[in-house]
Amino acid sequence: MKRQFLRAAALLMALTLLLCAGAGCASGGENGSSSSAGSSSASSTGTSPEAENGLVATYPEFANHDELNITWFEQGWTGPEEGKDLIAPKIEEITNLKLGYTPMTTPTDDEYTQQLNLMIAGGEIPEAFFGGITAYTREIYQKLGESGQIWDMTELVTEEDYPNLYALIHPEMELYATEQGQSWFLPTQTGRGYENLNEPPHGIHVSTGYLEQLNLDFPTTATEFYDFVYRSVNELGAKGLLFGENLGGVNQLYEMFFPHIGSHDSYELPFDVDNGYKVCNYQYSDSKEMMEAAKYIWKFASNGLLDPEALTLKTTQYQEKASLGDYAAVTGAWWEIDTFNDAIGRYNYIAPPPMYASEEVKKAREITWTDWVGCWSSLIINKSVDEQVVKHLLATMDWLATEEGQLLVNAGIEGETYEFLEDGTYAYTDQFKADSNDLDWNSAAAFGVFYYAQLVQNAPAISEFQETPSALIREDNKRSWDSRAEERARYDREWEPTYDYYFLKGDKENELMPAINDARTEFLAKVVSAKSEGEVEQLVHEWNQTCINLGIEQVVEERQNAINGIIERMSK
Question: Which of 30, 183, 418, 552 has the fewest CB atoms within 10 Å, i.e. is most exposed?
């Protein structure tokens, strides 16, 4: 009820805003900035020493000095501190653009929404605002754009003018474009900006100790996985499979039976790309795939291979049990597994290769993939900011996407915060590690390191200079990572994403799916408690009717219409 009230109040504020726009309500510049950076329109002909050394030829925008204040939404993290910030002054020295910093700290999502609404209702739109990427945030941006209060970035970010920035964010600009094709914000922290190959996998992790005792290799099929858990329990006295709270991780079992798994917002109702992008409703129906998966889950439960408290387990209990190390397999995020292995005192739980129910499913799932299309944050610019300053910011962001720019925002100043090693990689200095509490994110952000990378993150540009990713230094993470070598081999950064990468959930789905997913938890609990396979079959048929009653057909129809619209829009 509280969220609904906030949303209703916010829409009322937005309508007030639209009326206010025509009457000349205050916005941006003087009212929107609490920084000493000065007016965004202030400009001089002074050229910085760095800009004189060739960069002006590439970026004519660097010829003049400009200032722009950015208000940064922060939730659980903090930013640069006055007197410590090393990065903003260096950016100014190189690009001739002074970035002012004003934090907007919010402890919760509701507080963020309230702050956003108050900011807009008061007509005090910051010169630039670094915000979230929720559906409601985008809705507010669209209202601001259509009322003429923020810049339309559609025609400004071009491949010709800003090739580095364009390459980094153009898929997201396509994804979040309005029906009229307008981009009212710059997507930041995008899917292409991160190193997507060097993170250990989440999901099922198996006990290598029990594998060794049974003289087995990692399981790669549903049958092999079941047999491993069964033999571990019945031959070695192990405990079986441990899920998290509310059967957390059970999807790792039933997804073995699904020929298609989506990405981003399409994950649970994926599209069959080779079949006209038809929506695949495996799990919210009594499909053949869901029937087989439900029987597979029940097989674990009926044979005593699930933790006896699986249906009542709380997170703290799950953590305690997993830390004992006597389960054949556990589900969890890789950092949770790290904690369990540390508690056990040995690298016990390792992720196996992907497991499939059949060769048919495996073949369907072994496809080329690329960086996810989406982002974690956004940037809008007040229409009161001069176009010259807007272009200066875009040029600066384009430079930040380069190797030199990424070294600055991710590593800092050579000789002060990092130094190059003999092998060509860089390492942070002992002094900076001490000053930043061993590279704690917030502590490093006080110096600007890491923090400004939120504006432009392009980790692949400097991957060759980075040491082994910290997550892969651990032997257990490295072994789990090794298990997914075949998946990484199918990655292609230059591969053009298929249309389903550009899908976003619609209003009907956002409205109906919470109740459907609550019902799914109840359904799976009944499957685990079933007395016979025949009862499981009946439960699956009942589940299908429950989903229909709760509106799944409307969700599927909305998705199908949405993907058809994406295909039509993007194929022109």
Answer: 30
Q: How far is CA 438 from CA 430, 432, 433, 477, in A?
A: 9, 8, 4, 21
Q: Is 94 helix (H, G, I), strand (E, B) or coil?
A: helix
First-to-last C-alpha distance (Å) of the chain: 42
What are 332's two structure tokens? Answer: 């969890």
Whether 189 and 377 have beta carbons less than 8 Å apart is answered as yes
pLDDT tens for 189-248 read 999 998 888 889 999 999 999 999 999 999 999 999 999 999 999 999 999 999 999 999
User: Angle 220-221-223 (CA atoms, 0-180°, nearest 5)?
Assistant: 135
Cβ-based neighbour number of residue 22 at 10 Å: 9
Give dist(CA 291, CA 6) in Å, integer.
41
- What is the tens place of the pLDDT at every residue in 501-537? 999 999 999 999 999 999 999 999 999 999 999 999 9
Cα 163 to Cα 24: distance, rounded to the nearest angstrom: 36
Q: Inform me whether the pLDDT recorded for 35 exceeds 70.
A: no
Task: Identify whether the C-beta of residue 572 lies closer than 8 Å to the C-beta of residue 566.
Answer: no
289-322 burial, b at 16+ Cβ within 10 Å, e below that, comes to bbbbbbbbbbbbbbeebbbeebbebeeeebbebb
**Which phi and psi angles does 502 have, rounded to 5°?**
-100, 15
Residue 164: which residues within 8 A CB-CB, separation 6 or more? 398, 399, 401, 402, 458
Please give the Cα distance from 569 to 321 (Å, whole number): 51
- Among the listed residues 324, 305, 303, the one whose alpha carbon sits nearest the alpha carbon of residue 533: 303
What digits encode the pLDDT tens for the residues 255-312? 999 999 998 888 999 999 999 999 999 999 999 999 999 999 999 999 999 999 999 9
How many Cα atoms occupy the beta-carbon half-sphere of 270 within 13 Å?
A: 17
Q: What is the pTM of this model?
A: 0.81
Which residue's structure tokens are 């205050």? Answer: 26
Radius of gyration (C-alpha) of the chain in whole angstroms: 26
- Cα 193 to Cα 196, 313, 465, 488, 547, distances in angstroms: 9, 38, 16, 17, 38
> Residue 423 pLDDT more than 50?
yes
Alpha carbons 466 and 460: distance in angstroms, whole number? 10
